[in-house]
Predict the 3D structure of the following.
Amino acid sequence: MFGEKAKQKEEKIERLEGQLVAAQQALQQQIDELKQHCQRQDRWLEAIERKLQYLCAAADGEFADVRQSIDAGDRDLSQKVERLDLEIQRQHRWLKRGFKKIAQNLSENHKQREYRLVEELCQYYNQMLETKISKDEMADILWEICDRLENRRDLAANGERALDRSEAIRTALHTPNSHRSGSESIRQKHFS
């Protein structure tokens, strides 16, 4: 009996040792698999890290390129704005000179028309004194001259000047002096 029990215990111990060896082998296999998995994870992480470093370097390069493009665009835009500003100033000066010249020409034309008007008035006045034209005929002649040289809107716009001229003409017409002194007084009144 003692021998049988010892044999059972030995068998049990052998079985337990077999189970222990199998468990150790299974555990070692799991440890090896875990190590391989960790190595694969390490390689994967290293690959991701390299990719991230490449992407960061590429992004930095692209960012530098974009920054350079923006800076170049800013410089180009600033130069264009400066050129446009200079061109606008040049055209402004050109227009200003042009308008000044036009104003001078208009002023000279106006003075010439005024002078011709007074000259014609003096001629008609002299003719009236020589041919004894009535005052109504003289008024018609004066209106004819005014219509030829200026339209009636200009006379209305320059009403004061027209009134001054008509007063000078009326004064000259009613002056008992000779016709020469009358025409001279009209000329002096407007061109002195």
